[in-house]
Amino acid sequence: MKTKIINGNIIDVESNSVYKGTVFLKDGIIEKVEKENNTQKDDYEILDAQGGYVAPGIFDMHVHFRDPGFEYKEDIKTGLRAAVAGGVTRTACMPNTKPVNDDPAITSYMVEKAKNLKLSELYPIASITMGQKGETLTEMGLLKEAGAVAFSDDGLPVKNSDVMKRALEYVSRFNAPIISHSEEKSVSGNGVINEGKVSTLMGLLGIPAAAEEIMIARDLLLAGYTGSHMHIAHISTKGSVELVRWAKQRGFNVTAEVAIHHLTLTEEDLYKAGYDTDYKMNPPLRTSEDVEALYQGLKDGTIDTIVTDHAPHARVDKDIEFDKAPFGIIGLQTLLPLSLTLFRKGILTLPEIFVKLSLNPSKILSLKGGVIKAGEPAYLTVFSLEKYLFTKEMIESKSKNSPFIGREMEGKKLYTIVKDRIL
């Protein structure tokens, strides 16, 4: 199969530039890139970018697809359909399924189901401990052989420091990071939103920034001690950014991510929305000061990736009292337009955004892709800057728990290209 993408502005993450050009694809590989719009008749099928942008394919390395066990919320098929609709070429799926992804058979099930669907690609993240109980380490080597690309008890912290230390020592034998859900449960307690002015005004129990920062500090020190790769999930506070920056300055093998909703919403948005449970997530929405610190962390390289933490929940679960509703929102179809707000605000250039969305996730998980150049696998997101209203009817996920429904978006996926599949 031979295809050339014409009439596009190519986003080059390596040179931090955007230029008009043509991308040639052959059998799922980028064959060559020309810095001119090649509309000549030849034996290539033409894909018209319509004056939009050709970017390295988005890789969301933090999603929850609920399959197996909670398919009434989401399954692998609907999760990957949402990914395609959002221009996301690859996803990495967290292990808090039922049963937990702590067994190679479950990992293999996820890999094979995704492969047979021929949509976006899925890479399982297996659990650090059996049943995510924080006690006994999983057989990480066997899970890696079955297809796991990283290990995390996401949704639950590994409370025991010695268990986390041994997990880091275990993965040092092969290329796979430990992903930390940074939360000290004894401090966050029964909190449901950020602790501060808004929690007081709304009469809701708060989650202090310290609950996140205490565990990040511990895990960074363990990463420094072992020399193993620690990836800090969904950081949300100014203090967390400062801690990760401190660790990187000392040469620790540490990377970090931020969820797109923590860049685009604050606790004030929750206050304005009232007790809308679609604004309830963990970590909670923080202050505008925290958001500014997250922006700075993106700019100076402290934060490596932008993710969704896509967390589907059925309405039957969300439409209850705020303090009883589960944490989490969906995000695969809003990741692209919300990330582009960073460009419009002058925080990151377009290439810098796709370093965070594509190149760095590929590097962190030791996978090819994330760059548009000859010889690389053809993971590409083609999009326009068209404005549109994001509606519930557009959502491909089974669950519709998004605070962005009804919001005007700018940045629409035209094609999601996954090797030899143009979707």
> For the report, how would you describe the main beta sheet?
8 strands, mixed
Instruction: Please state the overall shape, judged from the principal axes of the Cα atoms.
Output: globular
β-strand amount? 15-25%
**Residue windows where pLDDT falls under 50 for at least 5 positions:** none
End-to-end CA span: 14 Å
- What is the CATH architecture descriptor of the largest domain? Alpha-Beta Barrel
- Oligomer designation: single chain
What structural category characterises the helix and strand content?
alpha/beta
Q: CATH class of the largest domain, anyone?
A: Alpha Beta
**Helix share, percent:** 25-40%
The value of Rg in angstroms is 21 Å
Supply the CATH superfamily name of the largest domain. Metal-dependent hydrolases
Q: Determine the CATH topology of the largest domain.
A: TIM Barrel
Number of strands: 18
Account of the 3D structure:
The chain has two domains: 2-53 and 377-388 and 410-422, Urease, subunit C, domain 1; 57-364, TIM Barrel. Helices cover 32% and strands 23% of the residues. The chain has 14 helices and 18 strands. The chain has helices at 76-85, 104-117, 140-146, 161-171, 185-188, 197-202, 209-226, 238-249, 260-264, 267-273, 288-299, 315-318, 335-344, 350-364, and strands spanning 2-12, 17-26, 29-34, 45-48, 53-56, 58-63, 88-93, 121-126, 150-152, 178-180, 193-194, 206-207, 230-232, 254-259, 305-307, 379-389, 408-418, 421-422. The radius of gyration is 21 Å and the shape is globular. The model has no long low-confidence stretch (mean pLDDT 97).
